[in-house]
Amino acid sequence: MAVQTVAGNATTASPDLGPAAALSCRECGERFELGPLFACASCFGPLEVAYDLPTGSPEELRKRIEAGPDNIWRYAPLLPVPADVAEKPNINPGFTKLVKADNLARELGVTGGLYVKDDSGNPTHSFKDRVVAIAVEAARAFGFTTLSCSSTGNLAGAVGAAAARAGLRSCVFIPHDLEQGKVVMAAVYGGELVGIEGNYDDVNRFCSELIGDPLGEGWGFVNVNLRPYYGEGSKTLAYEICEQLGWRLPDQIVIPIASGSQLTKIDKGLQELIKLGLVEDKPYKIFGAQAEGCSPVSAAFKAGHDVVRPQKPNTIAKSLAIGNPADGPYVLDIARRTGGAVEDVTDEQVVDAIKLLARTEGIFGETAGGVTLGVTKKLIEAGVIDPTLTTVVVNTGDGLKTLDAVSATSQATATIKPSLDAFRAAGLGTA
Ligand SMILES: *Cc1c(COP(=O)(O)O)cnc(C)c1O
Ligand SMILES: [Zn+2]
User: Where is the Tryptophan synthase beta chain-like PALP domain (predicted)?
Assistant: First the structure.
């Protein structure tokens, strides 16, 4: 199939995307005008947003951010969005809790400070609301009327909700065999939801075909033809973590990998904060987490390869089940450049980690969260993550969407008649 670089039939008359100046190729550096492009016309490399970032004093910028709304729009000066973005109808994600996880730290032997960035607190209960919110602004700017995506589950719900609020039509595509919680969540907002008989990589291939076809005219696929903008939403995780630590870089961050977009953009966000003087420039390490049943990036990391060999996913961590991750090679670069690592855990370890987080911190994460905490635990035990340093673990989704993972082992302790005698017999009282 030919690689498409331009897509949709949208208006591109001088879009107002705030500080975004151009798109630039991550491989050859060639620059393109802002538009619904995602691959370089010269080398087919992925495009990303290049900025004219604010030039004032760091103190001034910090104050301006702190005076902003309690959502991702406080960082509007660093995002490809118009200055009045907060006044438009959107679902305003972000500024989720950074939980100081002292109980978990004690259990894992971490003494340098352990934090959980809990993105289950977003409007549709996953980090995907961040990336979709940015893509919606690009869709508006380019005149798209239908919002779409290929999804491993959470993205479909985030697109459905954001489109509903923005007054856009939505039509989203998922593998047909997703968890019930994700299917319902994607359908309830009233857009169209299409199950594809195949895995995520099949869904994604289908969407690429649809983009080049009249059937998909005027459609903004948030993670395909709007991907350069979409990706920028993940930078807000980096901004928030640093701001919530008191404008300080963490020493170590553990991030789950599906396509690898989130991990690469968190790194981009940290680099920007350093460049802008908003945080002190010091080394940090980025760790990537995958499930063993879909671990193409982890396998490449361990083998010392620069390229990622695609896999056929088979894991309960369906939100991370991308066998051919678009940003895999960039994840490898970042893990190696920062002195981090990429590791994977079994489905059993995923379940154990979900329950560990719930039991110690009262946070019920989805399977992706189990992957990330499971890998954190494994790397601490292996001496790769340093327990004496400040560590942030990103929980990207809500356990209510993946109940099947723990339902077999999380049930009522006892079922009794409503009498004290019955309760006494169950042996659960104090006396
Ligand atoms: C999509 C998703 C990710 C990571 O996605 P990337 O494609 O790597 O950006 C992580 N966690 C959850 C819960 C997700 O839905
Ligand atoms: Zn290029």
Answer: 94-397
